[in-house]
């Protein structure tokens, strides 16, 4: 009996690993659940992209619905979503706060100068301290934050018109209704 187990255990372990890898091949990498959904935005205090003396904190998110977009000048996905961010900034009243992540300050400034700047303000997180606190996997990532500073949604990957319409707009309407109810 012990001789048979010696052969069956490795086969069972191998079969389990194959099943896990197979599932991973067909999983959507943008559907990573976040432990921060429905929780207050993590505390941070970072210098802004254009002025080291000015800082931005999570308090910026209070009182209005906003987006917090993690981006970098070296990020191909960020380049793909940039036109979408410019459209959101132009066509909506939702401020977009940037988290310039693991990037060179001058490269980020040049990137925005050449492509346009959709951000209300950019925080600089060169060393990924705030990125870790927010559970950032990579760039781009976009968080939807309600008027109370609560994270309502996180999207990993470039924003597209389809994702904006299907995932963000319904949550924005819910957050607006909640915010309007709190104001009355």
Major sheet size, sense and barrel closure: 5 strands, mixed
Order of helices and strands: HEEEHEHEHEEH
State Rg.
20 Å
Query: Low-confidence runs (pLDDT<50, min 5 residues)?
Result: 23-32
Shape: globular
Distance between the termini: 74 Å
How would you describe this protein?
The structure is a single chain. The protein is an alpha/beta fold and 184 residues long. The protein has one domain: Glutaredoxin (3-Layer(aba) Sandwich). Helices cover 43% and strands 18% of the residues. The chain has five helices and seven strands; from the N terminus they run αβββαβαβαββα. The strands form two sheets. The chain has a five-stranded mixed beta sheet with strand order 5-4-3-6-7. Strand 4 (96-101), helix 3 (105-115) and strand 5 (121-125) form a beta-alpha-beta unit. The relative contact order is 0.17.
Main features:
globular; 43% helix; alpha/beta; 7 strands; Glutaredoxin; 184 residues
